[in-house]
Amino acid sequence: MVSRYHVKKLIVEGVQDKRVIPELIEANGIKWGSTKEDAIVYINDYGNDQFIDAESIGLELKSSGLESIGLVVDADDDFSARWDSVRNALQPNVVTVPEAMPVDGLICQSSEGIKVGVWIMPDNKAKGMLETFLTYLVPDGSSPILDWAKEATQEAKLKEAPFKDAHFDKAYIYTWLAWQGPPGRQLHNAVQEKMLDSSHPKAQSLVNWFKKLYDL
Amino acid sequence: MLQTLKIEKFRGFKEFKLHNLGRLNLLVGTNNSGKTSILEAIQLLRSRKDLSVLASAMDARGEYLWNEQKDKTLDIRHLFYEHEVEPGQSFAIMGFTNGNSDKITGSIYLGKSDSNDRQATLFDAADSEEAWSEPAVLKFNLEWENRGDVLGWQRSLSSDGGLRWDDVRPLRFSKISKIEDGTRTQFVSSSALQSREMIELFDKIVLEPEETLVQQAIRIIEPNIERIASLGSRRYSSRSREGFVIRLSNSHQRVPIGSMGDGTWRMLGLALAAVGASGGVLLVDEIDTGLHFTAMSDMWKLIWETAKKLDIQVFATTHSSDCWSSLASIASREDAKEEGITIQRIEKGKQKAVAFSEHEIVLAAERNIEVR
Q: What is the ipTM of this complex?
């Protein structure tokens, strides 16, 4: 049961996005809140990318008391195909959708004046996913290890490691995390414990989109 | 069945529209958003000169005055968006069904006093050009338009600007208030129906097929109820729950219905009102009142089945989360899409309601999207 409206809402694909994004925001000096209900933004992990759909977005926009809604989705293998699907889903619901995805994230408005934001992982132009975005945040000092993690992942794939090609960047970042101190931290812990650099320009771009969307 | 309802300058609404109405419509919105006013608007639209409904709705809101002659008058200012009675003031309520429309207009104008006015109110016309002519009084005009037919009704207002109670009592219209079948309207307020109304309704259906519906309804709350009977027509006070007895399957004694909980009384009232609205409209304010959340799905099921069977269009209001989310359990049924189940959110200052279709109700409940 809901005791108050979700004025600011963020829909993400999976539980990793749901854990990482708040850490990234907190690492940039914005208090997230300690419970789900008092968080500055209510996050819903959808479990898949089916929320990129005109009817779903239309329904979300009817939600009572809503002022701004953000959608974070992975580009996966084909950025332009993803952008097309995002455009089609937004078209009936927002006033104007630009021809091209802005690299610093999209923010537009519904006809009722609700702010609608979209961020396509990793950086609104490349193919990839949350994990791709996180490889950008590896501090420069670790780069030789990062390169080695990439080679090792490629090598493992040649040796028929069972992970899917599409999940290469996941295998790659977890390989790198396996060699940190302490080894094998989870993605959001790595952000929280500063193994990953939240002040990196790529991280700042996401944080700025987030602040602008939710007026923080 | 109403598909669209349009309201102009009636109560808190300057201009408001409800679209895509279905057989069952649940109105949600914050306190004071105007949910009850919409029920009243529908009731007035369908009243066809039986103004007793308006009178009791206004009475329940405490919108009456006592004029200098110690007569009770309805304070009709509140029906108007501007909360004033001045010449030229008006409101309108329109209903649309398959290209046909129904309309009621209420307006205030200056006119000659009626011969049947017991107390004609002098309007201060000293400054106007008509100062020399017959004194003018403020009059309230209601006009119903239905497929070309027009019905009009006018009364002079009392000196306090109120509408005399005697002018709206149902008896005054005994000749014309014979409401034809198919236009029956039942209004269940949040405080439920009164004993007298319930006994009247019950006596009409006793030993008729509809009696089974009523029994099913109260068994939702208390499965052990075997029979229910009314106790005749002696006068019951308006507050208490009297006039009905029940027999429980595990007892040989009859039990006054007042001994059962709020839920039984509420369900009995809902079922009787539904049966009484056969072929017409059922309006229920705060439909969840007195019902535990576990009874809510069964209540909707009963209302839905009855509405379909007896061709009733239902408009109900709620504040409860359990109430709307349990509606999702019937909104996912095949027949819901055919007949229409909607949630309509009423928001102050907006020009139209936010409407949720059957499919959207189901998704919103699944995805924890707040419709209220």
A: 0.85
